[in-house]
Amino acid sequence: MLKLLVEQCPRMNSVLLFYVSYLLCLCLGFLCVVFVSYWNSAWRGGFAWDGTALQFNWHPVLMVTGLVVLYGNAAVVYRIPLTWGQNKLRWKLVHASMLFLALLLTVLGLCAVFSFHNANGTPNLYSLHSWLGICTAALFAAQWALGLAAFLLPCSPMAFRRLVKPLHVWMGGFIFTLSIAACISGINEKLFFVLKGSTNGTQPYSMLPPEAVFANSLGVLIIAFGLVVLKILSNQTWQRPEAVHEELSKPLLGEDS
Amino acid sequence: MLKLLVEQCPRMNSVLLFYVSYLLCLCLGFLCVVFVSYWNSAWRGGFAWDGTALQFNWHPVLMVTGLVVLYGNAAVVYRIPLTWGQNKLRWKLVHASMLFLALLLTVLGLCAVFSFHNANGTPNLYSLHSWLGICTAALFAAQWALGLAAFLLPCSPMAFRRLVKPLHVWMGGFIFTLSIAACISGINEKLFFVLKGSTNGTQPYSMLPPEAVFANSLGVLIIAFGLVVLKILSNQTWQRPEAVHEELSKPLLGEDS
After folding, report:
1. Which of A113, A116, A126, A128 to probe the B interface (max B CBs under 10 A)?
2. What is the per-residue burial (b if ≥16 Cβ within 10 Å, else e) of B7-41?
């Protein structure tokens, strides 16, 4: 009995550490959504879909919620030990659905900014932030489509899935990192745009008014969320065990399922 | 003979692929340095250390060269297969020296911007870019000091090194990722500062003048460099083999060396 306990101890510690990290991931993700929503609601005047700055406000909220928080949470669902004994197809569908929702919010977030720019005669896609953001969104869409083709379509051959899987996993982390860099540059750019001092009757960004401290803190929260998600993804002992994994990783509705 | 060739083939392919990636890493790093230097030399008026904007110009050059290019190259030196048969202490010193030089350039780059701000009465550390940048530099300094204490000091116990190594490797990649995010937000911010249109007689950033295309391309090059470095670091087959590695990973001037 004692021997069994001693043997199980490192594994129990690892599982406990996972759940602490996962709880942190959920809390930080929730805080990111609260902060980005409150920033745009309390300081930027709220939301509308009328071509004004209120329409632009949907852009940061939808990008942070979709491309960072939902995306990050979708990336770590396979790591939850409670799911390892369950049918993998169910968790494949959870993973794909969360990412589909993330993609939908991303597209809506892009529509918000393009439509706002077009309504105000502002050119699109000139800043480095926008170049990075549009490439990240395009890579995400391609990654989702390739993931669907490789891991959910019944006609997908095993050899193709084996070839795609390491690329899919690695690109997933890379797209997530790019999305964080895009968010940081976007928040920074927005604060310089709106906190201009005497030009538009605000306290300048350089004086660190409460809005600047709050939005900078949103940036710090996004970085902290990214740190926790990437740490969970990089921990080998938190990967879904191979045996269970291999058995259940058949394409959805494939000939074996 | 044929059997040996067939057995060696995947390994030779892996080594060849490494050198292609490494060559790409060197070329992209070189291009990053050329682009950031040319941008600040041709469009931003060149360099000085006199409290003017010419002093600020050292900031992007030193940060990109130190915190991105030198840092990234230092991170991958252990992966070069040619070094695996050689004494690891030599490569530890190369790794630590390159990172020391990177840290020196980073500190100089920070001095350039702090001194420029102070000379012009501009507050320091208010933007999200500056918060991220200063945290990245502080983490880098802490990482270097901990690396020195754990892997180069003769009194460092083996148990301490074993404990620190995974953290050192993981934090190395994380700091590199943060430094890229800081560079992207910095380039974006700088272009909004200087390409103001009629206010300062330039073509506005939104019209994508040649300087904007060039500096945005620098951002793309930095992302591409980051992609290659992180891909090299994440490939398990390119890690220095454990046996050789363990034998030679004694602290510098330790009782066994």
Report:
1. A128
2. eeeeeeeeeeebeebbebbeebbebbbebbbebbe
